[in-house]
Amino acid sequence: MCDKVKPTCSYCQKKDVPCWLPKSEFEVAWRDQNQVASEAVRRRVTARHRLASDKKREQQSTELIRRDSSEVPRVLPQDPEQYALTFFFDTYLRPSTLSNHQRGFFGCVSPALARAAPSSVLWPAINACAQALLEAWSFLNPNAPQSLAPPYYIQAIAAIRRHLQNAEDIDDDVLLATMLLDMYDRIRSFCSARPHKSPHIKGSAAMIENRRNIPITTKTSPSTLLAVRSRIVEDALKNGESIPTNVLTWTPVIQNTPRTAEIELGAINMEVANLQVSAVQLKTPRTAALVPGLLAKAIELDRRLIAWTATIPDEWVPTHIWDLESIPHSIREAGFYGNHCTVHRSIWTADTLNLHCTSRITVGLVILTCLEHVQDSATDITRMETLTILQSLADTVCASIPFHLGDRTEVRRIDDKNIQYPQIGENLTPDEHYVAAAAFGGIFLMHRFVELLKLAPFLRPGQLPWILGQMGRIKKIYMS
User: Fold this and answer.
1) What residues contact residue 289 under an 8 Å CB cut-off, 6+ apart?
2) Are 342 and 400 spatial neighbours (Cβ–Cβ below 8 Å)?
3) 172 near 108, Cβ under 8 Å?
4) Rounded mean pLDDT, 364-381
5) 236 contacts 198 by C-beta, under 8 angstroms
6) Residues 274, 288: Cα–Cα separation, whole Å
7) Could you tell me which residues are beta bridge partners of residue 319?
8) Which of 254, 309, 300 is nearest to 274 (CA)?
């Protein structure tokens, strides 16, 4: 408080602020008393807010769990590392009860950890990712200054750097560590609604280039390479980038790997990504010369994507539920588009099928762009057919939303079994779907919604606002 020492009080001089003390009797008579009172109130309010903020920060630094899970055992809060690892293993690395179940690079992590040395680069990367995920489901946001995750992230980067400086082999542990660090970055980007740049995935591609002549000695090595390739391809599709040339050199390394549906779709999508980049040239003076070749390539890729659906396992085929009365009202209120929804074998197969839809959408948009430069009697018919197909693909993605999110509309426990999901007849929702849908469903859908937004000019009236509303719903579920 001002000590009223003239010409400038010591308090105001110390704070480096203009002294409000009047300098003369004239000022005493005419100064604005409202301003003086307001300033005093402002100082008191600021002090109270600062005290409350300090208390909240102190509580957050020791209290990590808000959306706590019954899957996580109660441990001492002084051991957040073990708490985070337990949460990560029980939620994100939990073995599936489904046979031949593909889980992306997550399926490679557990076998790698089983044989990893205590000094492996995997451990700090696992700790960084686990801590960020735990904090993302807690009061303590992984972007907050008091987050416990960044030190593990720095340790993991330092460990990978030492590994490379020592010219050691680029083994599975290193590649999986970069994938985990990429996931860490994605979590932070998701929680702050910032674009993700994927520097670790680009680094993985460079490291694999140095690994191409190294014999594969573990069963997970081909799967690890394919997981990295899958992430590179998806990022290229999302960002409109071409596939790095060196990715093609991986083919001999993985040629003996069983050709699953995921692998085949990834191979096609490599060409789809490059087609998307080539289509940008249609805006240049060379358009007329490029159109025939691009249109033929786009039609060929679309036919291959259609043929791909005949290669998926029978259990991947979704079940369509048309009886609206059998779907809980809370699900329909939360997010239901059209007159039916789909139920899938797992959240992973659902996302793979949605990826297939968005890949066809990318190809279809290239076809529409090419048709703008073609003048013949069949063009209008082809354009209308393409628009009908694109609308159907968008509807297919929208029909999967209840399976991904159930009736969630706000923050809930990650394993909350009170969440309702669409069911097939009397079959109950599998226990693992409650956790998997919460852990991955929103993030998977957000990626597919971004691709659907490219269709904005062609969607039927009202569908774009509905999709944007569902994106807002996901943000509320995961970021509120």
Assistant:
1) none
2) yes
3) yes
4) 87
5) no
6) 19
7) 343
8) 300
Q: Name residue 80's amino acid.
A: P
pLDDT in tens, 291-312: 889 999 999 999 999 999 999 9
User: With contact defined as beta carbons under 8 Å apart, do 297 and 275 qualify?
Assistant: yes
Q: Is the peptide bond before 7 cis (omega within 30 degrees of 0)?
A: yes
Beta strands in 274-433 (DSSP E): 319-321, 341-343
Tokens of 3: 């000590």
**3-class SS at 320?**
strand
Give the separation between CA 122 and CA 116, rounded to whole angstroms.
8
Which residue in 379, 366, 394, 385 sits closest to 298, CA to CA?
Answer: 366
- In angstroms, the Cα distances linking 117 to 8, 113, 319, 399 are 67, 8, 44, 45
**CB atoms inside a 10 Å sphere around CB 434:** 19
Entry pTM: 0.79
Both structure tokens of 155: 């340790």
Neighbours of 80 (CB within 10 A): 21
**In this predicted model, what pLDDT tens digit does every residue of 78-95 receive, in sequence order?**
577 888 888 888 888 887
The helix/strand/coil state of 384 is helix
